[in-house]
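2024-03-11 09:14:02 DEBUG pipeline.ingest accepted 1 chain
2024-03-11 09:14:02 DEBUG pipeline.ingest length=115
2024-03-11 09:14:03 DEBUG pipeline.predict start
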Amino acid sequence: MHELGIALQIVRIALGAIPEDAKQAKVETVRLNIGKLSAVVPDSLGFCFTLATRDTQLDGARLVINEIPARARCRICDHEWAIDEYVFVCPECAGCDVEMASGRELDVESIEIKE
């Protein structure tokens, strides 16, 4: 379960983002952008986040996940389309020179500190 490692990294990032003058503040919400094809299971990540935040300033914080849809772009005709699986043939020109435009993200978007 690689979600535990991801949750531990999120905690490290969030703790590092707390300003020096607010080191005793409690984190209320952590917002993530996770691509649909990132191989992260949101429910598993939520469970692991709860474990990883125990006895930290993030204990009890809400984890809000924004799932980013997967999109591909054809390098031949520049057509962009939504994808649901790993099939990389352009529906416009049938070209196979395709790149991922979105869907593999795993980013901490914001951290909200309780006032």
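2024-03-11 09:14:41 DEBUG pipeline.report The first helix runs from residue 3 to 17.
2024-03-11 09:14:41 DEBUG pipeline.predict end
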